[in-house]
Structures are given as structure tokens and as C-alpha cells.
Specification:
single chain, 8 helices, 2 domains, two-stranded antiparallel ribbon, TIM Barrel
């Protein structure tokens, strides 16, 4: 967070005995090279899968406990099932952290969260060209629409904004592509190259020339220190 990001994304899965854990793959390799789904393993079995204690899979409760008594970092929580979503939401509520979370995941997981909490902050991941159906947007009321950057051009971004949605482009690790998307008006970027994005949005780096898109005409250059994604509230 000190590097200038607004949210840190984590992937949360549910163990067979109901513990939300942080692991970026739904499949883990056990001793002997056997692979198992995280959801098929108990927390104890999952812990035994990592011989190095420093690399063991932490629970969401353990991670939140690290922030006890100090300011917590906002999280984007990617959940793959309604059960994992509700379990994670329960832990967040128990630790007074729910207002610091933005959930994303499959539609059925987001529906479960919305049914439980009218105030839950959701990001609808949308992997199709154009804006999502309005009936889906009305039922989920997402704070953001998340779309892979390769699906975005000036026309699509305008359509999404006219529908009342704020837009997150993911995952953008190319510096010229960051500049292009910011110039077209995306609201936020997901990236693994935080320093590049922060230098661009704070004016510490000169934006490179932005290429012309065949279907949208020339894009305006980004003035250092002026343009950039809006801060995520």
C-alpha cells in the first residue's frame, strides 16, 4: 500500500471444513506429486501439503489479525463460489473489516453476497465486448465493472460509462498500454507493475506516445501529473 495502490487483490478458497484460505490456485500439489482441489482438503491437510512452514497457506482470519490495532489495507477479494463468498464475508464482519473489502467472482457468488448485504461492494467481472445486460446490473448493483484490457476501446469505455458503470481494466503490465487506457478514461487499472502505474498517474514519468487505434482515431497524450485513474473509494 505504501507503493501507492488503492486495493490489494487476494484469492480466497474454502477448505472442506469451512475455512476461508488465501491461495491463488484452486489445485494444490501434495507430497508425492498428487494434486487435489483446495475444497477437497481440510485445513490441516492443506497445511501438511506445504513442507516449508513459511510457505503454508494462511487463513483469511490470520491475515486480518495482522492488522489488529493498525490501519487495514483495503482488499479486493476474489471468491470462486457462493459458499466461499459468504464464509469470507462472515470473517470480515467478525473483524470489522467488511467496509474495506471489494468482492469479485462468479455471478452466483456475487448474488449470494448481494442477498445477504445490500451494502456489499462488488465488482462484476465481465469478459464479453460491450456493457453487461441492465437486468444483471440492476440485480447486483456493482460498484465496478472489471474487464480485460484487450476488450476495451474508446467506444466500449464510453458505452460502459453511459450505462452508469465505473470500469476497472485488468491485468495491465505494459506501460504504453497503461497510458492508452488512462487516456481513454478507465477508472482504475489492475497491474502487477505498481511502480510503473504510480509513476504514470502521479507524474513521475513521461507517458510514451500513445498509438492510434484503427477504430477510434488518435488518442490524446497524457500530461504528466494530470490524467490517471480515479482513486478507488
Amino acid at each position: 500500500m505504501r507503493g501507492g495502490v488503492d486495493l490489494v487483490k487476494i484469492d480466497v478458497h474454502l477448505t472442506a471444513d469451512g475455512y476461508p484460505v488465501l491461495v491463488d490456485e484452486r489445485v494444490v500439489t501434495l507430497p508425492g506429486s498428487q494434486t487435489r482441489q483446495v475444497g477437497e482438503l481440510t485445513l490441516a491437510e492443506l497445511a501438511a501439503a506445504r513442507e516449508d512452514v513459511e510457505r503454508r497457506v494462511p487463513t483469511l482470519m490470520e491475515v486480518l489479525a495482522e492488522f489488529c490495532g493498525r490501519e487495514a489495507s483495503p482488499l479486493m477479494i476474489d471468491v470462486l463460489s457462493p459458499e466461499a463468498a459468504l464464509a469470507a464475508d462472515t470473517v470480515l464482519r467478525e473483524h470489522g473489516f467488511v467496509d474495506q473489502a471489494l468482492f469479485t467472482g462468479p455471478v452466483e457468488a456475487l448474488r449470494a453476497l448481494r442477498e445477504r448485504s445490500p451494502g456489499a461492494r462488488l465488482m462484476l467481472a465481465w469478459d464479453q465486448p460491450g456493457a453487461p445486460p441492465q437486468d444483471l446490473v440492476r440485480s447486483l448493483r456493482p460498484a465496478f465493472l472489471g474487464t480485460h484490457y484487450t476488450l476495451l476501446n474508446r467506444e466500449t469505455i464510453g458505452e460502459i460509462h453511459r450505462s452508469g458503470q465505473r470500469l476497472v481494466a485488468w491485468t495491465v503490465n505494459d506501460f504504453p498500454e497503461m497510458a492508452r487506457l488512462i487516456g481513454m478514461g478507465v477508472d482504475a487499472l489492475a497491474t502487477e507493475r505498481v511502480d510503473d502505474l504510480v509513476s504514470l498517474t502521479t507524474g513521475r514519468a513521461q507517458a510514451p506516445p500513445i498509438p492510434v487505434e484503427a477504430d477510434s482515431g488518435a488518442l490524446p497524450p497524457i500530461a504528466p501529473g494530470v490524467a490517471g485513474p480515479n482513486r478507488v473509494p
